[in-house]
Amino acid sequence: MENWEPKIATFLCNWCSYGAADLAGVSRFQYPPNFRIIRLPCSARVSPKFVLSAFRHGADGVWISGCHPGDCHYLEGNYYARRKFALLKGLLEHIGLEAGRLHFSWISSAEATKFVDVANRVAKEVEAMGPARFFIKSRAEVA
Ligand code: FES
Q1: Domain 8-138: top CATH class
Q2: Integer distance in angstroms from the first to the last C-alpha of the chain?
Q3: Which distant-in-sequence residues (6+ apart) come within 8 Å of 91 by Cβ?
Q4: Which atom of ligand 1 lies at the shortest distance from residue 81's CA?
Q5: Triad 124, 83, 97: Cα angle to 5°
Q6: Which of 68, 74, 106 to mutate to test the pocket of ligand 1 (most atoms within 8 A of CB)?
Q7: 32, 131, 42: which is closest to 84 by C-alpha?
Q8: 107 in ligand 1 pocket by Cβ < 6 Å?
Q9: Is this structure's pTM higher than 0.90?
């Protein structure tokens, strides 16, 4: 598919991973422009419905990132997020979504280089799989 670029819905916790993305930006670190960043108060705020909706509306991949274990501003939100993610990923892969379209990470606000590394890896993996078609009947629906 010519000129195709993956769209990756990216849910970032305000306190850590969003800070890392911001720091990467102000530090002028380069990373692929495929990410549509949605800032949330905590990674625990990511509902499975958000992920399904992102795929349904044309995302080719989803990336969720929050604070490191022990650093969540809401104490255990990132643990809940990780558990929800593991269940959802297992379920979606069981019904046919390709592994590698759904990613989870823990990145602190000081880890701009880690943010860039993970962004590069996620973009490369999603791009290698091509457009996601599992949740949509045709690309015309989301154009
Ligand atoms: S506040 Fe960052 S994951 Fe909860």
Answers
A1: alpha beta
A2: 15
A3: none
A4: 3
A5: 45
A6: 74
A7: 42
A8: no
A9: yes
- Spacing, Cα 84 to ligand 1 middle (Å): 14
- For ligand 1, whether the C-beta of 66 sits within 6 Å is yes
Tokens 């269940």: give the residue. Answer: 87
Tokens 């949605």 -> residue = 38
One pLDDT digit (tens) per residue for the chain, 143 residues: 678 999 999 999 999 999 999 999 999 999 999 999 999 999 999 999 999 999 999 999 999 999 999 999 999 999 999 999 999 999 999 988 898 999 999 999 999 999 999 999 999 999 999 999 877 666 555 55
What are the residue ranges spanned by the domains of the chain?
Answer: 8-138
Q: 138 C-alpha vs ligand 1 centroid, how far in Å?
A: 35
